[in-house]
Amino acid sequence: MGFVLPGEVLASEEEYLNASNTYVDNDGNIRSKRIGKTKVDTENKKISVMSKTIQILPGDAIEGVVTGVRDKMIMLTVDKVFDKRGKEKSNYIGFAAILVSEITTSYLENIKDSAKIGDIIRGEICSMRAGLFNVTTKGFDNGVVLAFCSKCRQKLKADTQDYKNRELREMICPNCGNHERRKVSKYYFG
Ligand SMILES: [Zn+2]
User: Fold this and answer.
1) The model's pTM
2) Do 23 and 67 fall within a single domain?
3) 106 plus 188 within the same structural domain
4) What is the mean pLDDT of residues 131-140?
């Protein structure tokens, strides 16, 4: 047995003693507590899981792609997690939700003016539950870091003439001249 996930059965209690990062369920199965590699100590009849999982904590920054914009939340697929110094600590793949109340400190009339499907967003983790990150994009660090024109899919440019000190900004498509709005991060690429 190699790589295991939390909850995966490793052996039965009759075969082995459970050691690090494992537990015994009510049916006498030894299961893994962590993502990691199984280690079997045949001499002492012990089974454990070697875990190198990096801890992901509230306050860490994430980057992800918008997969859905609903009435009350934005859905993301997360593919990068950064520590507080901005160093990439994991390319963990997971899912995140940004509730409408967590998008911006500015007044947001329409959630569709904050992000669109395919945009890349930087945010900060508020909490985690059952494999889902709750993320905030409030503040100038957070928001869309790359956005695409919904008409022609070209990279949008943030209007530098206006809204300089606002989280919600006017965006212009250099290709077709389309105007849209986004909740923009100061790290916006365009
Ligand atoms: Zn365009």
Assistant:
1) 0.71
2) no
3) yes
4) 91
